[in-house]
């Protein structure tokens, strides 16, 4: 109980300094296998952002043996969206620990609740949203060839993840579209071609557009 209170106070403090820093945040969204991680690695090299993948942070939390690990593992196996307080805490911690002030947040927000909770807790609004648009057929091919030993890269879980993406994540993209914040990229092309379009977004004055 006492520890919980101290932890919460520390968390609030870390969060206040995070919101005061007003970091630049770009959300990177797209279906599973659309190439978010691949393109983020290239953006990091060229534009000095720090890449935070919600999926990678959750997988690291499982490996660390955290008390939430089993719950997270079961949800990932089912392609379900992990409760936002878990994901938001991991993102906040990673942002606070990084010395940087520019972040690519990949695979988040995954639903409207994620989006509203993040804005509410951190008071951070994204500068813009990169949306990797790719056909399901191509995404399925890529994920089945990914070979990273992921428990969710099997055909049964992939189909569930596609459904979650369509039902829960596309509405988030629509929300930002109505605010003029979405930069849509045709992600069905080869990696270097996709990156040419990505570079255009980051080098144009669109980067800071409202
Ligand atoms: P995401 O992070 O969106 O799930 P990844 O970046 O992990 O997607 O890409 C999924 C797989 O597809 C990886 O094996 C990656 O090497 C491959 N890949 C990524 N982008 C492309 C592309 N433009 N064309 C072909 N394969 C790609
Ligand atoms: P990814 O690595 O982005 O493909 O994510 C893999 C899985 O992690 C998803 O299918 C979800 O189960 C979980 N996950 C990733 N990002 C989030 C998020 N923002 N909120 C909740 N669950 C997530």
Automatic annotation (TrEMBL):
Claim: Ribonucleoprotein is one of the keywords in the record: no
Highest taxon, organism lineage: Eukaryota
Cofactor needs: Mg(2+)
GO terms of molecular function: ATP binding; nucleobase-containing compound kinase activity; phosphotransferase activity, phosphate group as acceptor
Residues bound to a ribonucleoside 5'-phosphate: 59, 80-82, 107-110, 150, 161
Annotated PROSITE patterns: ADENYLATE_KINASE
A Pfam family reported for this protein in Swiss-Prot or TrEMBL: ADK
Binding site residues for ATP: 33-38, 146, 189
Similarity comment: family membership: Belongs to the adenylate kinase family. UMP-CMP kinase subfamily.
Name listed for the protein in its UniProt record: UMP-CMP kinase
